[in-house]
Specification:
Length: 432
Amino acid sequence: MLVTLILAIITCVCLILSVLLFPKIKIKNLEIHTYWIVCLIGACLVLIFNEVSFSEIIAAFTADTNINPIKILILFFSMTILSLYLDELGFFKYLASKAAYLAKTHQMVWFLLFYVLTSVLTIFTSNDIVILTLTPFICYFCKNSAIDPKPYLIGEFAAANTWSMMLLIGNPTNIYLCSAGNITFIDYLRTMVLPTIVAGVVEFLIIFLIFHKSLAKPMTYQKINEKIADPLGLALGLMLLSLCLVLLILSSFLNFAMWIIALGCALGLLFAVSIKNLISHQGWKELGDTIKRVPYELIPFVLSMFIIVASLNKQGIAAYLTAILDGSYAIFTYGSASFLTANLINNIPMSVLFSTLPHMENINNIKALYATVIGSNLGAFLTPLGALAGIMFTQLVNKYEVKYDFKTFIEYGAIISIPTLLSALVTLEFVI
């Protein structure tokens, strides 16, 4: 057990240091994120020291269970492709430009519209995709309108990591945790809709109170002409995404695995767009860029953390943590523990670890699982380490020369995330 613990701790410490000190390494024109390399090395050491065997890992990767990491990755990447294609067609930026047009010179209206837009897009696509797409738009818009970008950046990031709780597909952590608990799409929605709404309202009010003086100032209206160059491609993308969402909702009734549904819709999109391009003789840029933008580094990251967690479970760490966290106040112990742990080791490794803790044996463990989902999402905006979204977000704002360092992130993150977390957990207590 000691060797396993030491390797896991060293990996987590190096993961934190890599994010803070050297998030990327550059080899000629190629930039490589370091977080997954650190985790891959840690997983290799676990296997070399035989803390978990190759045969046990292969068995886990090929197991016919919901927690199979390969199935979860297929589900996540399939949904990512559906969202990225819409982004490549300019759909998200087009909606953002329409919100700017409606707001004109009124910052408060613009803030409200943009928060609602971010929330809706996050619910039906993915928090990571929304952050990658809308963050550059905010930086550009605010710079040209001579207004403070912080209210909008904070509102966007908080909304993306709060409303991602609404649907099971909103965050990879939701998928992993609920797969472990055999929770269906519709059961998840029925439970999480109210905690998400309450958390979103509380969060919005806090951000508004912090920045209401800044938002009361008028701004210079900047007309942005975002157009959809490929209406047919957009129609195909929206149709396949909508079909996927409907089938996921009905998956428990149809007795289809969610990863099969998502994969089928993603392949259907690629096939339909390819046929369209062949017939119309259009270029392949949008489709090619979609495939290029898929975050492939998540594959070694998730699989490596799965191996490390498997070694911890083999040594009885999961049972030890369960004994500490279980009790009458499961919602608050698991919710707060997952929230804090996400900011020590990132929310994906945390979810891999916590997915082994609450077993679906009684109502307290059902509460524990949903509370962990809440902690995994809201933990993302306490510190940049809480989620990959935080790492991407800080890199983007720095690229666009917006001063938003680690200290600033934590200052605003603590003020917003802790009340939001408590409101979501209290609501969950009444829902279940």
